[in-house]
Each structure stands twice: as structure tokens, then as C-alpha cells.
Amino acid sequence: MSTKIKARIHRDDEVVVIAGRDKGARGKVVRVKPAEASVVVAKVNMIKRHTRQTQQSSGGIIEKEAPISISNVQFFCPNCKTGVRLGIKSLEDGQKVRSCRKCGEVLDQ
Ligand SMILES: [Zn+2]
């Protein structure tokens, strides 16, 4: 088994969309769907959905985020102010954290 840890996008990460309809958009990851290799990003890839009238709501059209491919997003580095590739850095205590490959900034708290 490989000991290599895959740099991953997590929930609550800020990402930039690098391809597709919402290219250039920035948002927070609200959900990661590993099985589909996709992520749901707040206010990105909005789709309109018709809902039926119920006793609780009047129905109508609601807007909702649709998942986008994880390969279409990049982690947003606050230091570089752009989408970057993630690397893995080992801390002195042996803990592995995600870091920016561009500036080296540790991106995990
Ligand atoms: Zn950076």
C-alpha cells in the first residue's frame, strides 16, 4: 500500500472553479461526494428546481447548487489569491498537513 496521502478538497474549503460554466467563480465547499468525484460549492452551478405546493410552502422555483466535478475546482490560496495545487507537508510533530504548492503556505489549521 502506498503511504502517499492524496491532497484532497474538504468541506468548508474555499475553492475556485477552473473549468465549465462557472469558471472563475469562488466559493465554499458545502459537500464532497467522493464516490462521484464531485463537490457541491456554495452559489456555484446553480440549477432551478420546481417544487410542488405543500402545506408548508407555496411551491414554485427554488435555486439549488448542482455538484461539479472535483477536477474542475482548485483550492483557493489566500496568500497567492488564486487557485493552486495542494501539496502535503510534514510538520515537526509528524502531522501531515495540506499546503500550497506555489507559496508553501500551510492551508490546514
Ligand atoms: Zn499559495
Poorly predicted runs are 1-5
Radius of gyration: 17 Å
The set of bound ligands, ions and cofactors reads:
zinc ion
Q: What profile does the largest beta sheet have?
A: 6 strands, antiparallel
Helix content estimate = under 10%
**Shape label:** elongated
In the residues, how many domains can be counted?
A: 1
**How much strand content do the residues show?**
35-45%
The number of helices is: 0
Q: Helix/strand/pairing class, anyone?
A: mainly beta
The N- and C-terminal alpha carbons lie at a distance of: 28 Å
The CATH C-level name is Mainly Beta
Which architecture would the CATH scheme give at its second level?
Roll
CATH topology: SH3 type barrels
Order of helices and strands: EEEEEEEEEE
Task: Name the average pLDDT.
Answer: 90
If strands are numbered along the chain, what order do they take across the biggest sheet?
Answer: 6-3-2-1-7-8
